[in-house]
């Protein structure tokens, strides 16, 4: 899967990954996201905005994820925690913008 990422400096990069979990690890390794809780749905440092056209391709926001998102200053309708996102259908392309740090 091809993923276009717009980072906090508005720089665009493309990643070739097999799933969202690999993307999460890669962005963490590159320090594009802090991923402080390691994917436990508690720190929100993996907050991203998902392109609207890809909403159908990923899992729905669960209650614990929604509670974290509700507490964020920069939350938007298309906010997700990257660590909680999984693909529901096979897709070739995804576009994600990393949210500003809180
Ligand atoms: S890495 Fe902490 S909430 Fe996703």
Helical proportion, percent range: 10-25%
CATH class: Alpha Beta
Q: How would you state the average pLDDT, rounded? A: 97
Low-pLDDT ranges: none
* CATH domain fold name: Ubiquitin-like (UB roll)
Major beta-sheet overview: 5 strands, mixed
| N to C succession of SSEs | EEHEHEE
Radius of gyration: 12 Å
- Structural class call reads alpha+beta
- CATH homology group: Beta-grasp domain
Please, how many helices?
Answer: 2
Give the CA-based shape: globular
CATH architect. name = Roll
- What is the CA-CA span between the terminal residues? 29 Å
* Sheet with the most strands: spatial strand order: 2-1-5-3-4
Please give the domain count: 1
Strand content: 15-25%
Number of strands: 5
Ligand catalogue? FE2/S2 (inorganic) cluster
Helix-strand blueprint:
Elements: E1 2-6, E2 12-16, H1 20-29, E3 47-50, H2 63-70, E4 79-81, E5 93-98
Parallel strand pairs: 1-5
Antiparallel strand pairs: 1-2, 3-4, 3-5
The chain binds FE2/S2 (inorganic) cluster.
């Amino acid at each position: 899967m091809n993923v276009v990422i717009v980072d906090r400096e508005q720089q665009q990069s493309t990643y070739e990954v097999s799933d969202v979990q690999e993307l999460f690890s890669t962005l963490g390794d590159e320090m594009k996201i802090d991923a402080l809780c390691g994917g436990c749905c508690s720190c929100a440092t993996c907050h991203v905005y998902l392109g609207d056209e890809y909403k159908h391709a990923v899992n729905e926001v669960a209650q614990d994820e929604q509670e974290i998102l509700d507490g964020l200053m920069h939350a938007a309708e298309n906010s997700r925690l990257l660590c909680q996102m999984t693909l529901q259908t096979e897709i070739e392309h995804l576009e994600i913008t990393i949210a500003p740090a809180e």
